[in-house]
Hints:
By secondary structure, the chain is mostly beta strands. The protein has one helix spanning about 210-215, and strands at about 25-30, 35-40, 55-65, 80-90, 90-100, 105-115, 120-125, 135-140, 150-155, 155-160, 165, 180, 195-205, 230-235, 250, 260, 270.
Amino acid sequence: MKILKLGQMLGGSNAPSPSGGFKNLYSLAFDGVNDFVTCGDADVFTPNTSGANRGFSLGLWFKTTDASVAGPPPPFGAGSSKFLLGKNNTSLKEYDLQVESNGKISMKFYSQGGGLGQGFGELTTSLALNTGDWTHILYTWDLSNDFSGFKVYVNGTEDASATITAIGSFTGVANKGAALQFAQIEGGVGISNLAASLDEIFIVDDNLSASQAADIYNSATPIDMNTINHLVAWWRNGDTEGPSVFPTITDDSSNSNDGTMTNMDSGDIVTDVP
C-alpha cells in the first residue's frame, strides 16, 4: 500500500520522486484517432542485434480504458487489438505490445519477419489491465525459441498465470526494417491507434530478473533507467522540459534514437504521470 503525504496525489504530477534528484514530470496522451510517435528503424530495437545473447526486455507505464472493437485483424477490419507499441508493418513483423479486446495485455515476437510458414510466440496477462490507472508492464525474454523463458511482470511482480501461445516454427527475430511506433503500428493509422497515456518506455538488451523488475517498478515511482545495464533505448515522453520539446521525444539512452510526435501538438505532453 502506498502512503501519501497531505497534498500528494497518487499518480499525479506532484507524486513523490525517487531520491537523487530524478523526477518524472510529463507523459504523452494519445487520442486513439490518429496520434502516434515514430522512432524509425534502428538495429538496437531488435532483439539480440548485439549478438551478446543476453536476452531482451521491454517495459513502460501506461494508463487506458481503451478496449478494441472485435472484428477482423488489420488491414481488413477494425482489429481485435489496439497497439501500445510495435515494430510491425504487415509483412515486416518483429514484435508488438497490444491491448486485447478483453483488456488483457499481450506481447508477440514474430519469427524472421512473420511471413508465410513462420511462427510466433505470444504471452498474455491473466487479468485485464485497461483499468484507467497507471500500470507498469515489463516483458522479458531469454531468446529461447520455445519461449520457455518468456515472462511478464505487472507492477513489479511476475504474472505467473499469464498464458503463452506458440505457433509454428520459430528461429529468432530479424530486423526487417519496420519503424518502432507508440500507440499504433506502422501503416495502422485509424485502425490500430490506442487512446492512452504512455510514459517511460524502454528497451534493454538483457533478460531482466525478477528483482530488477521490482526495482524498476519501485513502489509505483519511476526510476532513472540509466542505472540499468545494457539499456539501448529510453523515451521519457516529455521529460524534463515539457511541451517545449514538441515534436521531439528524446531517447535518453546513449543511442539517441529520438521519436517524433505525429498528428499531435504540444498540448499532448501532459503532467499526468505515474
